[in-house]
Every structure is written in structure tokens, then in C-alpha cells.
Amino acid sequence: MALWAGRFSKEEDETVNAFNSSIAFDARMYRQDIRGSIAHAVMLGECGIIEQEESEAIVTGLAGILEDLDTGKLKLDPNAEDIHMFVEAELTNRLGDTGKRLHTARSRNDQVALDIRLYLRDAFQDIQKLILTLIKTICETAQQHTETIMPGYTHLQRAQPITFAHHILTYAQMLKRDYSRIDDAIDRMNECPLGSGALAGTTYPIDRNRTAELLHFRKPVENSLDGVSDRDFCIELCNALAILMMHLSRFSEEIILWCSWEFKFIELDDAYATGSSIMPQKKNPDVTELIRGKTGRIYGDLMTLLSMMKGTPLAYNKDMQEDKEAIFDAIDNTKLCLKTFIPMLKTMQVYKENMRHAAAKGFINATDCADYLVRKGMPFRDAYKLTGTLVAECIQKNLTLETLPLEEYQNMSPLFTEDIYQAINLETCLKERKSYGASSPEAVRIQIEHLLNDLQKLEQS
Q: Do both 373 and 236 map to the same domain?
């Protein structure tokens, strides 16, 4: 019989019981549920709300349940309504009336609000560790390619020369923001809802600061109604995952393009690609394609959470039970994508020659040609127009800026001299981009150094 059955004159319909049950997915929070219950029991004993001996017995009993669940000696009851009821029923089974005292001054509403916060705090620490590992992997790859020239793109058209290191370090910067975005969300979430009761607090002389301290929260939630009635922290953290996955998806899209024969800038290790059931020559970047697909799935989890909360009046409503499957799904799939992406990136082969060959085409040194004229006194807009005319002439004559004869340059402007060829050399174009955060090997090495220093600080914090 359900622990809340006193008010009812008949058993719950089996279909409703199955519909109402959440243990199939909230069972993963058993460690957090028990940790929260231990803190609650300690506080009840210290405040004299229950006898100290009872508090100690409850703590010992809960520790035993935790150990038995961890070792598999105790199996979860699939017929239990949720993990909270399962743990309380098991404790009562072991301790009798003493076990029944655990729920004094507590509701399932503040209990579940506590459990999900504790679980998310733990889970997102794991995600942050994976983010740091991925940033480190990007830095290690970048260190090998600070002088590997490739075309930079806008509108997927060749634009200016950059290095492969500079390109992939962009994602390291995005990931660093993803890390801090999670940090910010966790900090806002890190208030303890325990003691909020069902919605209005409690008449017992509890010490909410003590439970917050025991569970390593910054402080108790200020408003008991707020403590049980919002899941904005789930939404905010899921939003952080959606942005993180958007970055992984963009990186994946570029890897997919680079793997194609049309680019052939890289090749994935065989362990991170698949073949075709009918075409024996195929090597498909399925890992990155799945990451793109799972990004949409996590967007869906975010929309589920937003839609779930948009029409719920205060305080708790059963709609909010739907928070867990959505946020758990987002967590699980983000972890899976990160764990797969890291070794895939680490083992991929980079074809420097193909990148350099692509960079030699597409007039990606045209801006440098215009800058050459500007340095010799021509206004930039005039230099821009003249260089565009030169590019059109090269296309018409099937030439490049490097192969256009000097007399053709000088027909356009007497400012052109023999040194134009050095100015538009790709290595020169790259080396001269020395501004902070730019693509010269020197500037890129500084970026890597700063990232690695930031990583060290984050790992030690």
C-alpha cells in the first residue's frame, strides 16, 4: 500500500499506478536521495525534533541501504512509486517506527527538489571534466599545426589564409564559455530547498542552514514556495547543454566536410568511422553525424522542460515529474557525445598538403594585396576596388595574384613593385597577422599558452 494511502478508501488503479510511477527513471538518484535524508536526520536529531539515538539509528540504517544498493545486495522494487518512497519503506522495514520518523518536517516536494539539485550538481561536474579534456585535446592538436596553412572561410567560400591550429582553437574558446556557463548555472542552483516542506515551510524548529551546510549548498532557498515550485535550474542547465551541443555539432559538420573527397583535409581513424552495406569503398563519419542528430534531440529536451513549466501554477504540480527524463536524457547524450568526440579528434589524421593546396586557390590573399597598396599611401576603398579589378582580370586570364606579371600590376598602379609577390605570399600573409587573437603562428601559440594556463586553473579550482 502507498505511504500516502490514508486518505483513500480504495486501492489505486493499476494503470494509474504505472502511469504515476517514476522509479524507472528517478532510481538513478538513490545516492542523492539517501545523502539528503542523512543530512535531514542529522539536523532533526541536533534540533531535538527526534531523539538523538533515533537520528543515529536512521543515519546508520540509511548508510546500510546505500551500501546494499551500491553492491547489488538490495534490489530496487519496480513496483515502488518512486525512489523516495522506496528508500523510506526499506528504512521502515529495517528500523520499524524509528524509520517512520525520518519524514518529520519534510515533504516529497522539497525532497525531490533537493535530490534533483544534488544529482545535477554531481552530473555536471562530470560534464565539465569532459569539456576540459576536450579543450586540452584541441590544444594538443593545435600545437602540432601552428604553421599548417589552410583557407579560412566565410559563407563557405575561401576568404583569408589561416592555420589549422587557429581554426580549431575557435572551438576551444567556445567550449571554455560552455564550461563557465555551466558554472554560472550551478552557482544559481546551489541553494538548498530542504525545509521548504510541501510549499509553506514547517511548524517544527528546523535548522535549514545546518542541512544546507551538511549538503555543501551555499545557503537555503529564501522562499519555501519557490523552493518546490520551479525547475528553472533544470531549464538553464539544459540550455547550457544545448549550446554546448550546438558547438559540437558545428565542429562535427566541419569534420564531415573535411573528410569528404571534395576537401580531404583530414581522415578519421577507422575506429571512429563506419562502412556501407552495399558500397565497399565508403568510409562514413557516422560519429559526427550522430552528434549532429543528438544535438536536435537535446534541443527537444530543452523544449520539453520549457513547455512543461509554462502553464503550471504555484506550487508543485505533477507535471514537474517530467523534468527528470528530459534533463537525464540531455545529460546522458551530451556525455556520450563528449566521450566519443575526444578520442576521435585525438586520432584523426591531418593532410597538411591538401590544406595548403586549397589555400593557394581562391584569391585568399586579395586583402593582403589591398593592404599592400594602403601601406604605400592609397586609401583603403580605392585599394579594395583596384584589387577586385585585378582578381577579375586574373580569373579572365586563368591566372592567380602570384602568377600575374608585374607589368599587369603596374598597368593598374605605379605603386606596385617587385615586392608585391613577397607581400601576397601565403606564409607572409599569415605571419603578418600578429594582432592579438589573430592567425599568425606567433599569435596562435599565445592563444594555446593562455588556454593551457586557464585549464590548469580550472582543474585546480
A: no
Residue that is written with C-alpha cell 601576397 in the block:
424
C-beta of residue 249 within 8 angstroms of C-beta of residue 291: yes
Query: Which of 73, 104, 135 marks a domain boundary?
Result: 104
Domain extent, residue 137, equals: 109-144+153-354
Q: Are residues 196 and 332 in the same domain?
A: yes
Domain end marker among 323, 354, 385: 354
Residues 203 and 346 in one domain: yes
Q: Which residue has the cell 589549422?
A: 164
Predicted confidence (pLDDT) per residue in 329-369, tens digit: 999 999 999 999 999 999 999 999 999 999 988 899 999 99
pLDDT tens-place string over residues 412-458 = 999 999 999 999 999 999 999 999 999 999 999 999 999 999 999 99
Cβ contacts of 364 within 8 Å, gap of 6 or more: 151, 152, 158, 159, 160, 161, 426, 429
Query: Quick one: 136 and 246 in the same domain?
Result: yes
Inter-residue long-range contacts of 313-322, CB under 8 Å, 24+ positions, other chains counted: 314/199, 314/225, 314/229, 315/109, 315/198, 315/199, 315/225, 315/228, 315/229, 316/109, 316/198, 316/199, 316/228, 316/229, 318/20, 320/231, 321/22
Distance spanning both ends of the chain, measured CA to CA: 48
Cis peptide before 315 (omega within 30 of 0): yes
Active site residues: 155, 276
Coil vs helix vs strand at 404: coil
pTM: 0.92
Total count of domains within the chain: 3
Q: Are residues 78 and 185 in the same domain?
A: no
In degrees and rounded to multiples of 5, residue 284 shows phi and psi of: -100, 135
| Alpha helices (runs of H) in 164-285, residue ranges in sequence order | 164-189, 208-214, 224-229, 232-259
